[in-house]
Amino acid sequence: MTKKATFGFFALALCLGGALPSASTAADKPKILVIYPYLGDQSFVRMHQASETEATKFPEIQIDIVAGPDRTNANYFITAIEKAMTEGYNVIAINHGGAAAQLYPALKKAEAEGIKVVGFDTGLPELKGHASDVLYDIPGASGKAGELFAGIVPDGAKIGIIRCLLGNPDTDAFINGFKKATEDKKYNVVMDADAKCDPASARTITENMLTSTPDLAGIFNVFDVSAQGSLQALKASGSSVPLGSIGGQLYGAEAVAEGGNWKYTVPYPFEAIGIIAIDTAVKVAKNEPVDSITVVPVATPLTPDNAKAYADELKAKLAAK
Amino acid sequence: MSPRETKRVLGTAEPAIDTDHSDGTNAIGIRIGLRILRTGPAFILVALVIIMAGLNEYFLTVRNLQNLFTQTAMIATLALGQLLVIVVRGVDVSVGSILGLTVVLSGLMMQAGFENGLVHIAVFISAGALFGLFNGFMIVKGGIPQPLIVTVATLGIGRGLALLLSGGTEHIGMTPVVQVAGSGSVLGIPVPAILVGAVTLCLAVLTLKTLWGRWIFAVGGNPDVAGWLGVPRDRVVMSCYMISGAMAGIAGIIYAGRTDAASPLAGVGMELDAVTAVIIGGASLFGGRGHIVNALIGALIIGVIRNGLNLMSVSPFWEAIAIGISILFALELDVLRRYLEEKLRARAARAMR
Questions:
Q1: What is the CB neighbour count within 10 angstroms for residue A140?
Q2: What does the alpha-carbon distance between residue A108 and residue A104 come to, in Å, rounded to a whole number?
Q3: Would the CA dihedral through A193, A194, A199, A200 be positive or negative?
Q4: Which residues of A touch B163 (CB under 8 A)?
Q5: How many contacts (CB atoms, under 8 Å) link A and B?
Q6: CA torsion sign, A260 to A262 to A267 to A270?
Q7: Nearest 5 degrees, angle CA A28-CA A32-CA A37?
Q8: Which of B258, B309, B312 to mutate to test the interface with A (most CBs of A within 10 A)?
Q9: Is there a single domain that holds both residue A192 and residue A210?
Q10: Membrane-spanning regions, if any (chain B) (predicted)?
Q11: Which helix (H) or strand (E) holds B189?
């Protein structure tokens, strides 16, 4: 073996060693594998950070937290589930980011090997009999988003809807909840488009909405990450069309506090879900009783009245980390 | 169209088809025919614009045209760089990741309180160029002659670095110079469109009026012969990847300015749009053939399709299918154009005999 190849081999081994969770824990500790889809935006990062902090409270349990390359990469999830089976984990806590259907065979196999499964953020409704689901109150949150929208946009007006990720069950549930909450207003949805959670795509869609519908009266952009793009389009065109979203991310709260087009955002309780997921998985690992479903309640929506205080508090929290 | 004409278009007409014309008329007709066919992508673009204008009353409004140019600017910039790489028989699928990485670097500078706009611009372009140079270096000097594999690997490295450096979170609020570059306008012309125009002009001069421009087509046409003739083909290839990276950096400026945000996921999937634009623009994936203006037109074709469908509120479930079909249609039109071009060239050769 040449010197270069030897160096390359050791460098690769070092990289892999750094990327994988440590296996140097006591063999008798119960083991939990917490699987996140990816860490590509503030929502997942905040949830992940909360889980990591919470996990340090349970030194008697080995809790390994991993994250994948993108939101719905089923292959990554299946590999992680297989890792849990190979390495003798007792509990899998999984946030599947919308890839649930592809994971059921692997999860059932894991359950057949005695591993208990906890779903969090996005549940596992078809995987009947698993230990627990920690869910956000999507109907409640999207209903609240619809109510606020209805309070701003008049009956029968033309509105646009922007999705975050086409075909994602979460996004669909939020959109359906929003439509249900606003059905009495008889809005004319002139465009229902997919921004793929990309602010640049959302800006493009919003620009086209404003062009094709000069009398547009409101935009519901399902998540803050893409609503940021809509806001830029509205600002650039000098439009007064109001914008509503779900998320409660820092920049969303700051934009709402400024009192411009972005009228509200319904906070997504990322930290609460990340913490409760760990607590539930720990209880399951200790064979303590847990509820089959834990619903994290809807947080207070952010409007120009309360968004600044929320943003300041969140900024301080993020800076502390 | 008569049955005889139909037969000719489909390529089933008899070979001896020029006997009823004089040589002089033939030569002029063939020259005009070739000239028209070389502008094939432009014809496709014009046809699409007419169709979209017929389907939506807002398509040809000044406001929408401004939007269209701005919305196409990122793909166009990436496509212009991609064209150079494709001309030298390469491909660069890492440009989306390079875009994301440069955006994150600018976001980190903002977080650190460093807001000098010109330095930000320099970082966007030089970081992109360096990454592109690394791609070229790995392909040429690293002994990995498969550009697709190398740039797939660096696509992952670039995106991973962007996520790692940003901690996975977005930074909101870019420096004013970047905001203007992505969102501003001068006399009603969007700044991103002006940027694309300037870049197109520079690259057109480089490729059409300089020795380096002749070298890239020589290397793309036949690398071995180019090498025997003394063309520094390794440096030519590396320079093309470096320019492609720099173009990704410029696209990053536009992205960051448009969204006023630095997202580590910026540019995901844009590499495919860039390659598609270049191919629709008539470049050959086998190298040696392509034109800067046609690459720009290829990007505009994609932009017109997306913008038009969006204006018509095509359901998101159908939009992806419609875009795919439209692109295939555009490519098939190009295949037909090339077929006719070859026929006319053959006829021109016979006329010269």
A1: 16
A2: 6
A3: negative
A4: 39-40
A5: 99
A6: negative
A7: 155
A8: B258
A9: yes
A10: 36-56, 68-88, 95-112, 118-140, 147-167, 187-208, 236-256, 262-285, 292-309, 315-336
A11: strand B189-190
Q: What is the pLDDT of residue A231?
A: 96
* Domain presence at residue A240: yes
A197 and A180 fall within a common domain? yes
Q: Clarify whether residues A228 and A150 are in a common domain.
A: yes
Number of structural domains in chain A: 2
Query: What is the 8-class DSSP label of residue B230?
Result: T
- Residue A81 covered by a domain: yes
Using DSSP, state whether A73 is helix, strand or coil: coil
Q: Which two tokens stand for residue B62?
A: 């000044």
**Exposure on the CB side of residue A70, measured as CA atoms within 13 A:** 13
B167 touching chain A per CB within 8 A: yes
Residues A217, A97 share a domain: no
Strands (E), chain A: 31-36, 62-67, 91-94, 116-121, 132-136, 158-163, 188-194, 216-223, 243-247, 262-267, 293-296
In a domain, A13, yes or no: no
Mean pLDDT of the residues in chain B: 86
Q: Are A43 and A173 contained in the same domain?
A: no
- When comparing pLDDT for A230 and B315, which is higher? A230
- Alpha-carbon torsion (A125, A129, A131, A132), positive or negative: positive
ipTM for the predicted complex comes to 0.76
Q: Cβ contact (<8 Å) for A229 and B258?
A: yes
The pTM score is 0.81
Distance CA A116, CA A122 (A): 17
Taking Cα atoms as reference points, which of A166, A270, A141, A180 lies closest to residue A226? A166
β-sheet bridge partners, residue A66? A35
Domain of A209, CATH number, reads 3.40.50.2300
